Amino acid sequence: MNQWTTVEGKLCKTFQFKDFPEAMAWMVKAGFAIEKLNHHPEWTNIYNKVEVKLCTHDAGNIVTNKDQELAAMLDKI
Fold first, then answer.
1. 36 to each of 7, 17, 66, 70, how far by Cα in Å?
2. Exposed/middle/buried for 2, CB within 10 Å: 0-12, 13-18, 19+?
3. In angstroms, rounded to a whole number, what is the distance separating the alpha carbons of residues 42 and 23?
4. Model's pTM, two decimal places?
5. How far apart are CA 77 and CA 29, in angstroms?
6. Who's near 21: CB < 8 A, 6+ residues apart?
């Protein structure tokens, strides 16, 4: 299983899906949950992969409990 890692001070994970529509559907679903937390990730999508990077900008670009909470939520989606 692909785990979260810390790279250059950010919590990072790549989610891989069957195809592009499945990746986009996950991003849309995740977007609603992300908005509720009001804690927005850096993410990119290339075909069936979504790369997510988390850090708290207003805390000086470090990983905080908000990032851990968002990471756990994204894992559940």
1. 26, 24, 12, 11
2. exposed
3. 15
4. 0.90
5. 8
6. none
Domain count, the chain: 1
**Gap between the Cα atoms of 60 and 39, Å rounded:** 14
Asked if residues 29 and 23 have their Cβ atoms less than 8 Å apart, the reply is no
How does pLDDT run across 4-61, given as a tens digit for each residue?
Answer: 999 999 999 999 999 999 999 999 999 998 999 999 999 999 999 999 999 998 898 8
**C-alpha 72: how far from chain center:** 9
pLDDT at 2 over 90: no
What domain range includes position 23? 5-76
